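This protein record is not my work; I was only asked to verify it. The record follows directly below this note.
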Amino acid sequence: MAQPPIRPRPKNLDLTTIRLPLPGKVSILHRVSGAGLFLFLPLLLWAFQNSLTSPDTFAGFKSLVAHPLAKLVFGGLIWAYLHHFCAGIRFLLLDLHIGIDKEAAVKSSAAVLGVSLVLTVLIVWRVLL
């Protein structure tokens, strides 16, 4: 029995033309948020230590966090944590073969983005503003 000829797979190396589906974007954002949290872990530990050491260091930390750039950084870290948490739950459910068909995967990835953004806005509005 003759086998069909093997054709080479097309290669598209231009990253600007690749249209990634929403579940793929959520997956990449999950990795980016995890890496960001890991890289900013020393800053978070330093901030936590300064907030607990003494009333003077807490006052200094409080004045530092009042700066708009610090609010932006901490707001981004809050989003990274919430997105990483929500996407992690989604990936755990996918590992259990829940929601693996295409329609459910798109809905769950949209839910991850929506929930993480809404929770970030609520927390940042309540805590940082």
In short: Helices lie at 22-39, 41-53, 55-65, 68-95, 102-127.
